[in-house]
Each structure stands twice: as structure tokens, then as C-alpha cells.
Write a structure and sequence with these properties.
Layout lengths: L13 E2 L11 E4 L5 E3 L12 E2 L8 H19 L3 H22 L2 E2 H16 L10 H24 L2 E6 L4 E4 H13 L2 E2 L13 H9 L9 H19 L3 H5 L7 H13 L6 E4 H9 L8 H8 L10 E3 L2 E4 L1 H14 L9 H26 L3 E2 L4 E3 L2 E3 L1 E5 L4 E8 L13 H7 L5 H17 L1 H8 L9 E8 L7 E2 L2 E5 H14 L1
Parallel strand pairs: 5-8, 16-17, 17-19
Antiparallel strand pairs: 1-18, 2-3, 2-7, 4-6, 6-7, 9-11, 10-11, 12-15, 13-14, 15-16, 18-19
Length: 507
């Protein structure tokens, strides 16, 4: 960091691969050349010869016209297909994706989202065509192109991408967004088609593995304990659909605790995981046996079948519904995670917050275990010295090495995925932002040198503090916006384990 520049009024040196070194603004890259730019108009590094639209002023007319043309062509093809056969083909495709997710903890998110979107699309263009051939695969490919165009337009509206007025139609992408969205998804077992699969890292895979391998019945009639076992899937589902606002709207179901109980009861009645067609009358008979109902049968089926422009969980065709158990299970868990509280129970979001807090403790324990594996001693959690709490104080007498570690187990909020909110919510926000927390870690580090005797006595070191190498770290669950602040190194748990601890273990 060049000393004459003080982004955010910070005196201390800091560095980042994703923020401008002169103004602290977010960096973007040219989609074609990969060259990096800062488009903060007040920055001295603002590039000459490039004129960027403000996010709210970007002229997206041409892109919208392209989108409408793709939709018209796709709709015409869908109308020529046999509606029932096409729906069955797409539902079976989705069922296999979901079943694979439950068995392995890994999901190809592009394919899953695409399957849901196409099902909603063909409802809009319902027809009585007769085609039952490979046109179906062509529909998937064409819809993939349509979906990519739709995401591009929304990314431009949110500022994740920027559109240039000059050079005309040149597009620039937010550098950090590329990194963070992939890490969040892969952290919950979700991967893009091009992403490497890494199932051996901490990121919930250990939790998911326990769920998959636990013997005995998977679920019971009490859905709260069931959710507690499957909550990582609920987190997965939340991040699965919240990458785009328009997509998130399609998954907002008006579900109540009574609905959840009725859905779970219906799931339990299904004999196997196969895709099957059930007469609507059978669902009605099952529904009227339930002790509590917040909806009538039409409202209940409409919710599940995705009326009102929601993603269909089951599919209605001529007096039948087509469904499968794995998909119902996944959507049940997702619905639990978003339902509102009733008088007698805790809400899904509240339950998920509690479980994430527990996982945060597991995250710290995980890092402690890694340190102890290389013979570093760790003081008890939240040790208080000089009025400040320390997540992890770890040392090695043989290496004369002392580590001060603060951990942050938190995913960025989905609302932060907009360039308009990323810096404020995830970086500078006093309560949860990265920067204030790292500054406090620097203060913990400074305190050690202000009161070395107190630390030496409390920690129980054999030698004076001055004889030890002291390093401060701030460890996050994902790649942070900055990589150092003053004396504090900021990094993901993956980088800490692979680069720092691995080096210490081989010394």
C-alpha cells in the first residue's frame, strides 16, 4: 500500500488483490483481456479511454431484445413437444441430480437450477404437441443460453458486471465476485460444471458425510430434529437460489408449520425414490386425514405445483401429479429454512442461525485440532488477557513460536452480492464487517507487546515474550477481501492450513 493514500481513513498498511491500492474501491476485469481496472471516478487510477455506465443508467435495450428473441424461439420449440413426456423427462433429470446430492453431498448447481427453470418455463408455454425425440436435449441447451443471458442482465443491474458506453458494449466483471460465489457454493457441496470438486476440506463436508452415513431411518414425524440433521442442505438451498434476485423470487413459498407437517407426512407415505405419477384424488385422501391444515387442498397443491410463478416441486398433468421423494425432501428442508414462526415453534431462519453458531464453534475446534496435530499447545477458548478475549492462543516451546488467531465463521449475506452493498456490509460495517474485526485483532497483537509480562504469566511461557516469534492471524471461512492489515495476516482456513501450518509442521 502506498503510504500517501489512506482508503477508509486507515493509517495502517494493508493489501488486497480485490480492492484498489489507492482508493480501496472494488476491482473489475475485462471479460475478454482479463486486464484489471478500478472504476471509482475519484480514484487517480481511473482508466482513460473507458466510459462506464452508472449501474442504474446502463442501456440494456440490446441485451433485452436478444433475451426476448431467445425466449420466443424456445417457446415455439416447446409448443411442438408432448407436454407430459417433456415434463417427465425434465423431472427425472432433476430427480437424479437431487438424489445424487443426498448421497454424495455434491450438486451440480447449474443443472439443478436449469431443471427447475425449464419446468417453470414449459408451464408458461404448455402445448399439445406430439414430439418425443431428442428435441428435449436441444431445449436444455437453448434454455441454458437463455438463462445465461438473463443472469448477465441482472448482474449488470446489480453492478456485479459493468457495461461500458465506450468502448461500446464492453463488459467488466467484479473480480471478488468470481472468487467468493464459487467458494460459498463449493463450501456447501455445490459446484459449477467447470469447478473442481473438493469434498475433503472442512466446509461442512464432514457434517454432510455424517448425515449421509448415519444408519437407521432418515426422518421421523417430528420434523424439527430432522431439520437439525439436514440443515447444511438448507443452507445449500438458500445459497443455491439467492445468487440472482429474480431467481430467489421463484422460490419464495407461502409455507406454514402446518404445511411442513403435511408435506413431511406425504413424503413418509412414498415407498421409494422413483419418479411416479399419482392421481390427485390420492393426495386429497391423504391430505384430509391430517390433523391440522392451514390451506385447502387446492391451495396446497397450487403451492407445491408452482402456481403464481414459483418453481414447481410437483407437476400437475390431467388429473395426476408427477413427483419424487428426493426432490420433495430437498424442498421440504428448504421450506423449513424460510418459514415464519408460529406461536409454539421457532422459525426456520432462527433455527438455522443457532445451528450456524454451533458450526462456528466447530470451525474453531477444527483449527485447534490442526494446531495440536503439529504439537502446538492451545489455551482454552476465549482466554481473557488484559481485558481482551482471544479465540486461539497457541504456542510451541520447541519452535519458540506464538500464534494469536481470531476466527470468523460467516458467509457473506446474499444481499451483499450487489456491488452497491458489498463494501459496506462485508468490509466496513462496524458490527460484522471484516475490516473492524481485523483492526481489533491488530489491537490484541499490540496489547501483547504493551504487557508482555502479563501474557507470559497467563500463557505459561518458559521464556520471555521477546524470545518468541509472534504472529497474528485472522482466519475466515472463505477468501477475504484483504490479505493483511498491519501485523495481521488475513486468510481463509484453507490457505492457513496449506501454507502456514504445513510449513510449520515440516520445520
Amino acid at each position: 500500500m502506498e503510504n500517501q493514500y489512506k482508503p477508509y481513513g486507515i493509517e495502517c498498511n494493508w493489501d488486497s488483490e480485490y480492492l484498489c491500492k489507492k482508493c480501496g474501491g472494488l476491482l473489475f476485469y475485462d471479460m475478454e483481456t482479463k486486464e484489471i481496472y478500478c472504476f471509482n471516478s475519484k480514484c487517480k487510477d481511473y482508466p482513460t479511454g473507458i466510459d462506464i455506465f452508472k449501474t442504474e443508467e446502463a442501456d440494456l435495450t440490446f441485451l433485452n431484445q436478444q433475451l426476448n428473441e431467445i425466449e420466443r424461439n424456445l417457446g415455439q420449440i416447446v409448443k411442438t413437444c408432448d407436454y407430459y413426456v417433456l415434463a417427465w423427462f425434465l423431472l427425472e433429470r432433476r430427480r437424479r441430480i437431487v438424489e445424487g446430492f443426498f448421497s454424495s453431498g455434491i450438486m451440480r448447481i447449474d443443472d439443478f437450477l436449469l431443471s427447475n427453470e425449464i419446468l417453470l418455463f414449459i408451464k408458461k408455454y404448455k402445448s399439445f404437441g406430439i414430439r418425443k425425440d431428442l428435441t428435449f436435449k436441444a431445449i436444455i441447451q437453448l434454455y441454458r443460453h437463455y438463462s445465461e443471458q438473463l443472469k448477465l442482465i441482472e448482474d449488470l443491474k446489480e453492478g456485479r458486471y459493468l457495461l461500458a458506453r465506450s468502448p461500446k458494449n464492453k463488459i467488466y466483471r467484479l473480480k471478488y465476485f468470481d472468487i467468493i460465489i464459487g467458494e460459498i457454493w463449493s463450501g456447501y457441496g455445490l459446484v459449477n460444471l467447470q469447478s473442481p470438486i473438493d469434498v475433503n476440506k472442512f466446509r461442512y463436508h464432514e457434517v454432510i458425510e455424517k448425515i449421509v452415513k448415519t444408519p437407521g431411518p432418515l426422518i421421523s414425524t417430528d420434523y424439527a430434529p430432522y431439520f437439525e440433521r439436514l440443515w447444511p442442505f438448507a443452507v445449500s438451498a438458500q445459497y443455491l437460489i439467492k445468487r440472482n434476485y429474480s431467481t430467489a423470487l421463484k422460490y419464495q413459498y407461502s409455507v406454514t408449520p402446518a404445511d411442513l407437517a403435511n408435506i413431511l407426512s406425504f413424503i413418509l407415505s412414498l415407498k421409494d425414490n422413483k419418479l411416479t405419477a399419482i392421481p390427485l384424488m390420492n393426495l386429497l385422501k391423504h391430505f384430509i386425514k391430517q390433523p391440522i391444515r392451514d390451506k385447502n387442498i387446492k391451495e396446497f397443491i397450487d403451492m407445491l405445483s408452482g402456481d403464481n410463478d414459483k418453481i414447481p416441486i410437483v407437476f400437475k398433468t390431467d388429473g395426476n401429479i408427477i413427483l419424487d421423494k428426493p426432490t420433495l425432501l430437498l424442498f421440504f428442508v428448504f421450506m423449513f429454512s424460510q418459514h415464519l414462526p408460529s406461536i409454539i415453534d421457532i422459525s426456520g431462519p432462527q433455527r438455522m442461525a443457532l445451528l450456524k453458531k454451533e458450526a462456528g464453534s466447530d470451525f474453531e475446534k477444527y483449527l485447534r485440532n490442526k494446531l495440536e496435530e503439529i504439537n502446538y499447545y492451545c489455551l482454552p477458548p476465549s482466554t481473557n488477557i488484559g481485558g481482551r478475549e482471544y479465540d486461539i492462543l497457541s504456542f510451541s516451546e520447541s519452535n519458540k513460536d506464538l500464534l494469536i488467531i481470531e476466527t470468523k465463521f460467516k458467509d457473506p449475506s446474499p444481499s451483499s452480492f450487489s456491488v452497491n452493498t458489498l463494501i459496506e456490509q462485508e468490509f466496513t460495517y462496524e458490527k460484522y464487517g471484516l475490516l473492524p474485526q481485523v483492526i481489533r485483532q491488530q489491537e490484541r497483537y499490540d496489547l501483547l507487546f504493551e504487557k508482555p509480562e502479563l501474557f507470559q504469566k497467563t500463557i505459561g511461557l518458559k521464556h520471555k515474550i521477546i524470545e518468541y516469534t509472534v504472529n497474528a492471524y485472522f482466519i475466515t471461512k472463505y477468501t477475504p477481501l484483504i490479505k493483511n492489515y498491519g501485523d495481521v495476516r488475513v486468510m481463509s482456513d484453507r490457505e492457513f492450513i496449506e501454507k502456514v501450518l504445513h510449513k510449520k509442521s515440516t520445520n
